[in-house]
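Justification of resources, computational component.

The compute hours requested in this renewal are based largely on the per-chain cost of generating structure records like the one below. Each record pairs the submitted sequence with a full structure-token output. That output is archived, and it is also reused by downstream analysis tasks.
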Amino acid sequence: MAVPSKLVLLIAVLVASCTTDTEALKHKKTHIQFYMHDIVGGPKPTAVQVARRLSNYTGSDPIAAMFGSVSVMDNPLTVTPNPNSTVIGRAQGIYAMASQHNEFSLLMTLTYGFISGPYNGSSFSVVGRNPVMNEVREMPIVGGTGIFRLARGYCLARTYSMYQMDAVIGYNVTILHYNVTV
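The structure output for this chain reads:
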């Protein structure tokens, strides 16, 4: 009689440990708005070119001349367009000039990491095409960490201001993720 009761107890423990938390499996939708400051000029750039097209280009198209250029960035994310406003994170990654014809577009591979506020310690990643001169650009969210683990979604980017090649870009982000506690 003692063996069957131990077996029942073992089965009960296994069933309890295998039961999933259905609340944790529900998707949560999060909306975030912030501003990214992409500074390529001046004494403290946040984006620097690390590769460029060989000098064998002989055309007159300035877009085609930049094709193949690659930059690395570590841009601050702020709550308002003012560069002196609260920094809530950093956008770190690579962008490459990806168009040869009629359009200034970038291939973006970036991680947006948060260093304060409700998303502190979490991040999401974007990989996609950014046609910079369009008023609104949509890019896919392909993953995340922390509370954004298993994230997917999209971000809408709008250029808020531009001076020479330095830009402030407003982001409206919609992220679907699980209710993960970290």
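The chain is about 10% helix and 50% strand. The first strand starts at residue 27 and ends at 38.
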